[in-house]
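Continued from yesterday's entry.
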Amino acid sequence: MSTSIAPLFYANCTSCHNPNGIGHFSLLTYNNAILYAPTIRNVVEFRKMPPWPANPEYRHFKDEALLDSLEIIAILAWIDNGLPLGDTSLAPPIPSYAIG
C-alpha cells in the first residue's frame, strides 16, 4: 500500500474521504482503508467511485476524477492479496485538508 495504493487513494479518494470531507469515512490511513476494503472493492470494481457522471468515452475534462484500468486492477489486487501494508518509510506524506 505504501508506494502504490496510498498515492492512488491520496490522488483520487481522500479529497472527499477525510475526517473533514463529504465522504462517509476517511481513507487517509491504512487502518481506515482496510476497514472499508469490501466497500472499496465494490465501488472501484463497478466504477461507482470516484464519482464522475460524465462519459469519458464522449469527452474528457480537466481534473476529471477517474481511475484508469491499471489503477483499478492495482486496487483490486491489493485487496485480493490480503491488504499488504508495504514499507511505510517509502509512503508519501498523508495529505491534510482544511475544515469545510
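--- second protein ---
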Amino acid sequence: MQYEFLKQFPRRMKNIGRYATLFTNSSQKTTWRQYGFATVDEQFNMIFAVMLYLMEQSLREESCTMDDIGAYIDTVNSAYFRKEMSYEDCRKMGDFIVNVILSNEGKPMYFEGFGA
C-alpha cells in the first residue's frame, strides 16, 4: 500500500538530510561563543544569512571574497544581532562559516536517508 503523503519521500529526506548534517556540524562548534552567538537560532540565522548572500552573489556572477563576506556579516550584525564584533571578528566569522561549517573543513558530509 502506498500512502499519498509518502510520495517523493526519499527526495524530501535528502533535502532534510542536508540541513540536518549542516546543523549537526554547526551546533558542535564552540567558536560561536567567541562572537557572542550562544543560541542555536542565532547561529542558524547567521548561517542562512551568509548562504543567501553567497547565492545572491553567485546569481549576479559577482566575485565574493572573504572581505566581502566579512563586510556583509558586519552589516547584518549591526542591523540585527548587535554583537560586540569588530570588522576583523566579522571576517573571521565569515571564514569560520564558509570553511568550517559549510565546507566541513573539506571533509565529506553524509546523511543516510531511508526510502519508504
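Residues 40-59 form the longest helix (20 residues). Residues 35-105 form one domain. Will compare against the first tomorrow.
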